[in-house]
Structures are given as C-alpha cells and as structure tokens.
Amino acid sequence: MACCLCAKYILLFFNLLIWLTGGAFLSCGILVLYKRDLHELFALLSYDSQLVPSFHNVGYVLIGVGALVFIVGLLGCCGSVRESRLLLGLYVFFIILVMGGELAVAMYTVVLGDEWDRSLPNTLKSRLSTYNYTVPQRFEYDLDTVQKQFSCCGIHGSSDFHDNTDYKIYGNRLPSSCCNILSNGICTESDSYRLGCFQIINDNIQLYSKLIVTVGVGIALLELTALIMAVCVCRNTTEEDEFY
C-alpha cells in the first residue's frame, strides 16, 4: 500500500513536469510560426528538397505535440488523484503513442541529416548560378535575409557566385547582402563576409542539436518512469470508476 501511495505521488509530480514540457512545445511552435527571422531560413533550406519541412509544418507539429502532451499530463494527474483505472489506462495509451511519435521523429531526423550533409549544400549552390540581381524573386529575398542575419555570403563562400551571369555582367559584383559595409554602394569580394551560410547555419544547428538530444533523452526517461508508475498505480487500484 505504501509503495502504491509513493508511486501515486511520484506520478503526480512527473505529470506536472510533463505539463511544463507541453507548454514548452506549444511556445516553440508559436515562436516558429510568428518569428519572421525563421521564415526565410526554413524557406531557403526547403528549396528543391522533399525532406526539409516548411516552417509552417514545423510550427503546427510542435503545437500539436504540445497539445497532446498537455492532454496526457491532465489524464495522468486526474488518474493518479482519482486512482481511476480508465483514466490511467488512457494515460498509458497516450504515453506509448507519444513515445512512438518521438521515435518516428528521431528516425526522420537521421534521414534528414543524411540529405543535409550530402545533397542540400550542392542543391542550394547550383541555384546561386540563377540568382537575379535586377529582378529578385522569392529565392533571392530569402537568401539576402539569411546572409544579413548570419553575416555570411553564398553557401560555401563568396566564390559560389563566380558562375552567376549577373556577377560577370556587373563586373564581379556581389549581392549587397554579402557585405556589411559597401564601397561606393557596391559589394566587392574583398569586403564580403568570409564564411559561407551553410557552415554558420550548420554550426548553430549542431550546437542546438546536442541540447535537443539531451532534453529528448531526459523527456523519454521521464515518460518511461511515468509509464511504470501509472501501471503500478493502476494494478493496485481495486475500486471501480465512478463519475458523478
């Protein structure tokens, strides 16, 4: 009985943490949808790629996961307080569902990482040959925004523009977004940012990936422990559910 009571309060505590996790997912989803700086970055990375998701999809997935985790936390709290087998059973089902979704996301990330390293840089670099200096389209706007935001030029560096027709027509001039300071209103290679955008973005992603993996492992252990506690409480609950 004491073991069951201990498991009940541990489950209640863990579900408060799960609630906070759901709130974090919701906040991140809203941030992705409404933070303008991220729109151009996701749009640029998703060009000619079937795997890199758009920023809208990322935001909606995070909001959906956050809402589901919120519901799971609510079921866990109510089930542990009422010692309801029905609510605890639903809780166990949704915890398994969430953990399965996390596994699917992890597998998708592995596949995405392979394309990221192998084909995405070359795909984006090939598009620079059609970068239009005079009549910018969506790609040009997104690239300019990313270059200004990350203080970078091209995909691997300013030399990526050497095959561009407008670069040759305008006397080896780079897009103005490649320079912090313009010489007579012109961005030259000597004044341009030294690093390519892919390297800077990749360094940032690698940094945050380690944090995300650490947090993900922590959440998985939290969910697994909560699952075990829920099963323990459910097995030691003998009263029938009453809703009135």
UniProtKB/TrEMBL annotation:
This is Tetraspanin. It is found in: Membrane. Disulfide bonds join 153-178. Keywords: Disulfide bond, Membrane, Transmembrane, Transmembrane helix. The keyword Transmembrane helix applies. It is a multi-pass membrane protein. Its main location: membrane. PANTHER family: TETRASPANIN. It comes from the Eukaryota. Belongs to the tetraspanin (TM4SF) family. The chain crosses the membrane at residues 12-34, 54-76, 88-111, 211-234. One of its GO terms (cellular component) is plasma membrane.
